[in-house]
Design goal:
Blueprint (H helix, E strand, L loop, with lengths): L4 E6 L3 H11 L6 E6 L2 H10 L4 E4 L8 H11 L5 E4 L5 H9 L4 E3 L7 H61 L3 H30 L1
Parallel strand pairs: 1-2, 1-3, 3-4, 4-5
Length: 207
Amino acid sequence: MTNDLKILILEDTLSDVDLLKRELNKSDFNFIFEIVQTRETFENALDSFNPDLILSDFNLPSFDGLSAFHIKQKKSPEIPFIIVSGAIGEEKAVELIKNGVTDYTQKDKLFTLNQKITRALKEVEEKKEKKNAEEKINQQHKKLLEVAFLQSHQIRRPVADILGLIDAFDMKNSANPENSEIIARLKITAEDLDNIIRDIVKKTNEI
């Protein structure tokens, strides 16, 4: 990782912060961090610090991890949010993950934290790659539509000219049944070609 991983830590107990730092130092991450304890400082840090990852306690004296998660979702839903707490049980933790929290780890099992961070960051990277791929496909589709639209107009113009010439020729030679039959077939063929071109453009727009 070329840039430092920016970690926002929502925690009010300094001894727990020290434990988090000690565990993070065991990883391969180059990181910087900012510690916040209140709703106001958390919201400000989302804008000013612009974190890559959030580690949050679940219960704080004047704030809580669930409220922090909802604030984060509104501002920056792509940022991984990991609950680090000893105050929630397995059932509550599973419920949080179902509601969108990235992951959780218990404070007495911090040895699992770095693995979960790695997994969370990998998921973010995969989502970015998927989004970039989708945007690339959309751009290609847009160019395809533009080409199809332009080519259809270029092709339909001579087809319209052919239909006009057929009508003019038919008016002059309508007395001859043999000529009328040939002209009718030519007109049907030209109209079929025009309809095929219209259909190609329509199907291209539906892709």
